[in-house]
Amino acid sequence: MTGLDWASMIGFVGTACIIGAYAYLTYKDEPNPLILHGTNLTGAALLTVSLLVHTNWPSLVLEGFWAAIAIWGLAKALKGRRRRT
Fold first, then answer.
1. Which of 10, 15, 53, 60 is surrounded by the most beta carbons within 10 Å?
2. CA angle, 17 then 15 then 11, to 5°
3. pLDDT in tens, the chain (85 residues)
């Protein structure tokens, strides 16, 4: 058995981000959308780096959608924040 390479380690950090964001969403009654979507976007980006090295096309497509939804959520949150100020 060999050790984990750098791409796999980055992928695990991305996985931790996405799991952490989901836990945060579940734990908080009113989660901060910037934290939620920012953490999801970070996780998707890190997993994408890993998947570009260790290609798994279905997972890579999933991360593309995950990132797009996170970007949409961030844009929506920033737009809402500008309206309130």
1. 10
2. 115
3. 467 999 999 999 999 999 999 999 999 999 999 999 999 999 999 999 999 999 999 999 999 999 999 999 999 999 988 888 7
